[in-house]
């Protein structure tokens, strides 16, 4: 589904991604782990075509086609949804307005506003609330729902559990599992190791812009040395 091969990304002259590679298969949940500042967001932005950073070399392939160098809206159109770190909602737009920015309210195929409200009942209850009137958990649900409105086959989620209460983190894990069951592929950046291991099939660890470890979620959960070495988990 997604192949990232040997990408090198820069902020100005700062060489942040130094040959990172990974793959995400159909209906697979892949977690991208690593300490703060290791390049996780940079990798997600590089895949999505969001600048900065500048990707100077490497390949990004989605469903067998090269997408590196395409504008983000064209990458979205091909079926890649994006939940940016920090959610990036519009404070003055309502829940419904957020969901209809990318798709007409009258659309009847794929993800519709009605289907989004079935999937996220809380958003339905708050449909007239504005971005700045929502709780952290509601904002995260809205960021995920918005990404779904383009009918993605792959979703890139950058720290969706950041700042959420444990009960909301669990709710989010359930949503990720449901999306996977519906056939979506997910590349998930997570600081919360245990949440990542609860939902992921495979895991990559990024360290100063390179993938230094790849394993199944089950294997890494049983590998305290690797967790300590790269993630500082004791
Ligand atoms: N807009 C930017 N301009 C310059 N440097 C940046 C920018 N964004 C991130 N960086 C640097 O790139 C490195 C990787 O950052 P990032 O991808 O955000 O890491 P992570 O998401 O793993 O915490 C860090 O050293 C960070 O300081
Ligand atoms: Mg980040």
TrEMBL record:
One GO term (biological process): L-amino acid transport
One Pfam short name: ABC_tran
Signal peptide: none
CDD domains: ABC_TM1139_LivF_branched
GO molecular function: ATP binding; ATP hydrolysis activity; branched-chain amino acid transmembrane transporter activity
Keyword annotations from UniProtKB, A to Z: Amino-acid transport, ATP-binding, Nucleotide-binding, Transport
Domain ABC transporter span(s) in chain numbering: 2-233
InterPro entries assigned to the protein according to its UniProt record, in alphabetical order: AAA+_ATPase, ABC_transporter-like_ATP-bd, ABC_transporter-like_CS, BCAA_Transport_ATP-bd_LivF, P-loop_NTPase
The UniProt record lists the keyword Cytoplasm: no
Coiled coil: none
Sequence similarity: Belongs to the ABC transporter superfamily.
Protein name from the UniProt record: Amino acid/amide ABC transporter ATP-binding protein 2 (HAAT family)
Origin species: Aquabacter spiritensis
Upper lineage: Bacteria, Pseudomonadati, Pseudomonadota, Alphaproteobacteria, Hyphomicrobiales
């Amino acid at each position: 589904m997604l192949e990232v091969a040997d990408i090198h990304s820069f902020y100005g002259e700062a060489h942040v991604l130094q040959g990172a590679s990974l793959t995400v298969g159909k209906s697979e949940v892949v977690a991208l782990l690593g300490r703060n500042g290791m390049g996780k967001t940079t990798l997600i932005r590089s895949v999505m075509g969001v600048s900065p950073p500048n990707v100077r070399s490497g390949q990004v392939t989605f469903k067998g086609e090269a997408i590196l160098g395409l504008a983000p809206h064209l990458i979205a159109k091909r079926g890649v949804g994006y939940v940016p770190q920090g959610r990036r909602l519009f404070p003055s737009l309502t829940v419904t307005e957020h969901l209809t920015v990318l798709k007409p309210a009258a659309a009847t195929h794929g993800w519709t506003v009605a289907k989004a409200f079935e999937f996220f009942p809380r958003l339905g209850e708050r449909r007239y609330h504005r971005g700045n009137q929502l709780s952290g958990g509601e904002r995260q649900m809205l960021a995920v729902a918005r990404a779904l409105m383009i009918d993605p086959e792959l979703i890139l989620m950058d720290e969706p559990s950041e700042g959420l209460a444990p009960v909301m983190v669990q709710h989010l894990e359930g949503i990720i599992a449901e999306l996977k069951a519906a056939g979506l592929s997910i590349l998930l950046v997570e600081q919360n190791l245990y949440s990542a291991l609860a939902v992921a099939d495979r895991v990559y660890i990024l360290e100063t812009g390179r993938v230094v470890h790849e394993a199944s979620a089950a294997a890494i959960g049983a590998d305290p040395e690797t967790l300590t070495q790269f993630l500082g988990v004791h």
